[in-house]
Structure formats: structure tokens, C-alpha cells
Amino acid sequence: MSQSLTLPRPDDWHLHLRDGAMLRAVLPESARDFARAIIMPNLVPPVVTGADARAYRDRIMAALPAGADFTPLMTLYLTEATDPADVARAHAEGLITAVKLYPAGATTNSASGVRDFDRVRGVLEAMAESGCPLCVHGEVTDPEIDIFDREAVFIDRVLDPLRRAVPKLRVVMEHVTTRDGIDYIKSAESGLAGTITTHHLIINRNHILVGGIKPHYYCLPVAKRESHRLALRGAATSGDARFFLGTDSAPHLDDAKESACGCAGCFTATNTMPLLAHVFEEEGALERLEGFASRHGPGFYGLPVNDATLTLVKGNAPTRFPAHIETGDGPVTVFDPGFPVHWSVAD
Ligand SMILES: NC(=O)N[C@@H](CC(=O)O)C(=O)O
Ligand SMILES: [Zn+2]
Ligand SMILES: [Zn+2]
């Protein structure tokens, strides 16, 4: 028996495309299924000015396969030296869609991030005025705080005080991984949303650590215990418009992940939509995938829902996804959910 589901073409509200050979290898994987994506600015060096964002957008457009229908929505990497006027100009021109806050040292390429939040108050106030959203990597970096608690502590120590200090600022809590994060987003009347990744709906911390360490399941924020994964599933499949898809597809070469000090990031661009169909079907919420992947994100960002459509089909045989993609510099492993998936994207 075959089944199918057609939705408005989805968007990815949190994506790492990198640069150079990696960009050319991973961009087609996202452009195939997604119409737009919020492009993370954590390159080396980071995308900090409007001019940087313009140049990066040009490199992405140059790397797009012929005939692809994909729009990169650019972001700036917030530093303590960010000029509020440059942000305001880039946003007014439509060059950027959001600004990204990385606490310094929290994740991959975050060394230029923010240490002293008072130093970015002026930029945040200008963004609140112009309606430019702030996307946040929500983890504290205090070495005293256990890595599994870093998201919950960030909410109390940083995010909530920041939102109270700049109440009109629109904030996206990226890659929520805890029940605490879900509850915090639900507690806000307006101006706060959360992205949820594909892999955090699928794995908990046992998947990373039981039976041998699995570097391809290691990402930041690190997957938490099962009760948190269930809270994420509940939120994603609830129909609540404050939650939408941000894959956080974050490619690293296999050599960099399968290492004594492996990089954080799961590469899910290739198979995200079939995996999500599997998860939503498992939760008895297939009809809500459209809200999560195609409608809630544009709603928050004030953009139109895509006119084009994407069709997912469920076949009798498990779908065969590539195990890895080639970049020219080495392979990147595609996220393996560890169970058979019968959904695929129709041609
Ligand atoms: N999510 C990750 O584990 N890694 C991301 C950075 C990030 O989104 O925090 C990356 O750039 O590799
Ligand atoms: Zn992050
Ligand atoms: Zn990310």
C-alpha cells in the first residue's frame, strides 16, 4: 500500500552550508527539498558585516545547481564590535533576515561570539526597533555547569534577562533540546519561537554513548535524556506555531568527526523530510508536518508560505539514502536514524 503527502515546499530555519568545496557538496542536498533556509554565519572567519553577508550570499548563489529554486536567507554573526547601523542597514535592504548570537566558546566556530551581553545591548535595541529577529544558540559556557544542563541554565541566566531587558526583540531559540526550553517558549505570549532539529526528534543521549561512542550522533546542544526527546516530539507535532523546523544540518568531514576530539554536528540535509514524515506518522500527526516544516516558520519571520509543493511518498521497501556524500576533500556521513524509513521525496 503506498501513501503520499503533499505540502507547500518546506523551509529550513537553521542551516550550515559552510564554504568552498563543502558548500558545493552540501548545497544541492538542501536545495533539492527546501525553498529557503536561514544560513548560519559561523564561517572562519565569521560573517559579521553586511558586506560579508553579501559576499557569502553571492558565493552560495554561484554554487547553486542550475535550475534549483532556493533562496538563502542570510544572517550576521553578532560580536561585541557589531555596528548597530550596519545591522539596521543590512536588514532594511533585505540583505539579512536575522542576527545570530553565539555565546563565545559555546559551539563550532564561536570564538568571536559574545562574552559580555551588556556590550551588545545597543545592537539588540536597534534590532527590536527594526523588527530584525535574533537567533540564539542557547547554552552557557560556564565550565562549572554540566553540559547536559547548559540549555536550562542559559534560559535562566541569559535568555530570560535579555528578553526582559529588550522586550520588543523577537527571538528564536535555536535547536531546542530540553523540556525546559519547550516550556519556556510556551510561557511567552509573543516574540519567542523555537526551532527543533530532525535528529533531536530521533536520538537521545543513549544513542550517542551506549554500545560505543557514535561520533555522528554528537552535536551541540548535545542530545539529552529520553524525557526531553519526548517533549520535543510533543512540541513539534502539537500544531503550536511557535515551533518550526531548523535542521541544524552541520556537515563536518568524517576525519574531523571520527577523531580523538570529534567535531559537533549532524548532517541531515539529505534525508530530513523522509525522516520527519516517519516521526510525524509515528506520533499520529502526519497532517501537522505541514505546519512544522512549511507554515510556522514563514509565519514567525513574516514571509509568505511557498507556492510550490513537495510530495512525500511511503513505499513498501525501506528507502535507501546515501551513507555519505563526497566533497572533494573527503566524505561527510549522512545522519543514519538507525531504523528503516519507508518515506522518500517524490521526483
Ligand atoms: N550544531 C552543531 O553541533 N554544530 C554546528 C554549530 C551549532 O549550530 O551550534 C556547526 O556549525 O557545526
Ligand atoms: Zn548552535
Ligand atoms: Zn547550527
From TrEMBL:
List the Gene Ontology MF annotations in alphabetical order: dihydroorotase activity; zinc ion binding
Q: Which residues carry this modification: N6-carboxylysine?
A: 100
**Whose protein is this, by species?**
Roseovarius halotolerans
Q: Name one GO cellular component term.
A: cytosol
Tagged with keyword Zinc: yes
Protein keywords: Hydrolase, Metal-binding, Pyrimidine biosynthesis, Zinc
Q: Name one GO biological process term.
A: 'de novo' pyrimidine nucleobase biosynthetic process
Tell me the name of the encoding gene. pyrC_1
Q: Which residues carry out catalysis?
A: 248
Catalysed reaction(s) here are:
(S)-dihydroorotate + H2O = N-carbamoyl-L-aspartate + H(+)
UniProt protein name = Dihydroorotase
UniProt entry tagged with the keyword Transmembrane helix: no
- Family label: Belongs to the metallo-dependent hydrolases superfamily. DHOase family. Class II DHOase subfamily.
Which superkingdom does the taxonomy of this entry point to?
Bacteria
